[in-house]
């Protein structure tokens, strides 16, 4: 299973053998523990639940759920698989070395939340003229005609900007250090520092 739960550390750059400078995002990887198996017969699909980091306290329901793995995970995620590999038993460990340098990956995470934003910032609307009688600089303008007497769903207007889950594809693993628990991904990935990111092998 090529998938990891990581936290964003920050960005740096590396110099390749040909002298090219590449931007690299560093992600920290704590040891993962397999917590639970989902099977097609019992749950309708096949998946592996994985936990990482250590929580100070768990609710009774979560503590009972992870009792067999003998850990107290802070973060729990589920990865769907065609079939569960034999080595992924409940309680087995996963570390950063599931990936190798050069592997193509996709990274999923929450983008930075920018709060409530107007149409110029959120949708790249043009600003209204400031001279010759223009009195509407940053307003959105018309949002509908007289018919059909309601605003169409999806009309671009002011609203929450950012803080949405996106997946960036076509990235590659630039470095892997299992001892330090760090992997490097070429390019930029979504979210702030310390944000949780899911790294999976390219589909």
Q: How would you summarize this macromolecular structure in one to three sentences?
A:
With 203 residues, the protein is mainly beta.
Give me the number of helical elements: 3
CATH homologous superfamily placement of the largest domain:
Translation factors
- Within the CATH hierarchy, at the fold level, what is the topology of the largest domain? Elongation Factor Tu (Ef-tu), domain 3
Helicity range: under 10%
Q: What's the order of the H and E elements?
A: EEEHEHEEEEHEEEE
Structural class: mainly beta
Overall mean pLDDT score?
A: 92
Beta fraction of the residues? 35-45%
How many structural domains in the coordinates?
A: 2
User: How are the strands of the biggest sheet laid out side by side?
Assistant: 1-2-11-10-7-12
- Computed over alpha carbons, the radius of gyration is 23 Å
CATH architecture of the largest domain: Beta Barrel
**Major sheet summary line:** 6 strands, antiparallel, barrel
- CATH class assignment of the largest domain: Mainly Beta
Q: Which regions contain 5 or more consecutive residues with pLDDT less than 50?
A: none
Number of strands: 12
Distance between the termini: 12 Å
Instruction: Using the alpha-carbon principal axes, give the shape.
Output: extended
């Amino acid at each position: 299973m090529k998938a990891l739960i990581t936290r964003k550390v920050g960005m740096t750059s590396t110099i390749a053998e040909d002298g090219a400078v590449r931007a690299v995002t560093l992600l920290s990887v704590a040891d993962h523990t397999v917590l639970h198996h989902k099977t097609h017969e019992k749950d309708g699909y096949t998946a592996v639940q994985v936990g990482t980091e250590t929580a100070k306290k768990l609710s009774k329901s979560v503590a009972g759920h992870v009792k067999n793995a003998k850990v107290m995970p802070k973060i729990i995620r589920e990865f769907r698989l065609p079939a569960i590999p034999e080595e992924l038993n409940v309680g087995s460990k996963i570390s950063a070395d599931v990936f190798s340098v050069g592997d193509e990956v996709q990274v999923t995470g929450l983008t930075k939340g920018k709060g409530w934003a107007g149409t110029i910032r959120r949708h790249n609307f043009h600003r209204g003229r400031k001279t010759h009688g223009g009195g509407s600089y940053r307003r959105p303008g018309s949002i509908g005609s007289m018919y059909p007497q309601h605003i169409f769903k999806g009309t671009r207007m002011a609203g929450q900007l950012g803080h949405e889950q996106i997946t960036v594809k076509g990235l590659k693993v630039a470095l892997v250090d299992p001892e330090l628990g760090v992997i490097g991904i070429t390019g930029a990935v979504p979210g702030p520092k310390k944000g949780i990111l899911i790294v999976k092998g390219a589909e």
